[in-house]
Design a protein that fits this description.
Layout (H helix, E strand, L loop, with lengths): L1 H18 L3 E3 L16 H10 L8 H6 L1 H14 L10 H23 L17 H4 E5 L2 E4 H9 L31 H13 L5 E4 L2 E4 L1 H5 L8 H8 L5 H7 L5 E4 L14
Parallel strand pairs: 1-2, 5-6
Antiparallel strand pairs: 2-3, 4-5
Helix pairs in contact: 4-5, 5-7
Length: 270
């Protein structure tokens, strides 16, 4: 009997700890009802151009110290809350919306914790705050976590290039584009960032008959193909020409590089 009481008490404690860690951004009671076609990403674009470099490094220190720009990020997140998922919008507008939302919420989450060395410092697995689950953005009155945005929305939109666009504030991630994704430029932006991703030796390298890929391709293998051949065929179009030539018509063993979870902060020399 004491054993079962202990288990029940532990379960209650766990549910209480997990339930008390949610942090909400945006506004629960949005002031407007907009389709994603009508969402304006210019505020986010301005912040990215100011604090992100061409390599995707973020000047978190300067951003954190600017009360004006912290507030501007809040204003943008509040604006995203005005979107209504039930209203008609183009696929491009939906993708741009959720990619920007994921990246903006992630930046907000890091700024809340900065200085920090890694997002993994804020991803408790059992008790306490987990930024991927507990930091939630209101959209149309409903809260969405980073994990929900990525796995329940973006991955179901059948666009694998999202994996080279959403950024988890780590050096192993694709670069954070220093402009907002927009419906009219989306295809070019996604392809440009995919090509940049595979141009980095840490993400794609050939040595003998072994190809080393980013762990992202391992974690999300199902989004690119369920075999090594299908995966390579899917990413081939985004590889540098020299790498395309080096693998064409050959058989390779694929291995995956260790992921770099250190924060994607600008170097001190920038």
């Amino acid at each position: 009997m004491q054993y079962y009481l202990l288990i029940a008490a532990f379960a209650l404690l766990a549910s209480t700890c997990e339930a008390g860690t949610n942090v909400y951004v945006g506004q629960r009671d949005a002031t407007q009802s907009l389709s994603m076609n009508e969402i304006n990403h210019s505020g986010w674009d301005h912040l990215l151009s100011k604090y992100v470099d061409d390599a995707g490094g973020v000047d978190y220190r300067a951003w954190k110290s600017s009360s004006v720009d912290r507030q501007d990020l809040t204003v943008y997140l509040n604006h995203l809350s005005n979107a209504r998922t039930e209203l008609a919008a183009t696929q491009q507008a939906k993708l741009a919306f959720w990619i920007n939302a994921y990246n903006a919420v992630t930046i907000d989450g890091i700024l809340r914790e900065y200085p920090t060395s890694s997002i993994r410092n804020h991803t408790a697995k059992i008790f306490g705050y987990n930024v991927w689950d507990d930091l939630q953005l209101f959209v149309g009155g409903k809260p969405y976590s980073l994990n929900q945005i990525e796995h329940e929305i973006l991955r179901k939109m059948n666009e694998p290039r999202i994996h080279f666009a959403i950024v988890c504030a780590s050096k192993g991630c694709p670069r954070l584009l220093r402009e907002a994704y927009t419906a009219d430029k989306l295809d070019n932006q996604l392809s440009t960032n995919a090509k940049h991703f595979f141009a980095q030796k840490l993400n794609f390298a050939v040595a003998g008959n072994t190809i080393t890929l980013s762990s992202i391709l391992d974690w999300f293998n199902a989004d690119f193909g369920d075999t090594d051949e299908k995966l390579l065929g899917r990413i081939y179009q985004w590889l540098p020409v020299s790498q395309q030539q080096s693998i064409r018509g050959k058989a390779f063993t694929i291995r995956y590089a260790e992921y770099d979870w250190s924060i994607n902060e600008q170097s001190a020399s920038n």
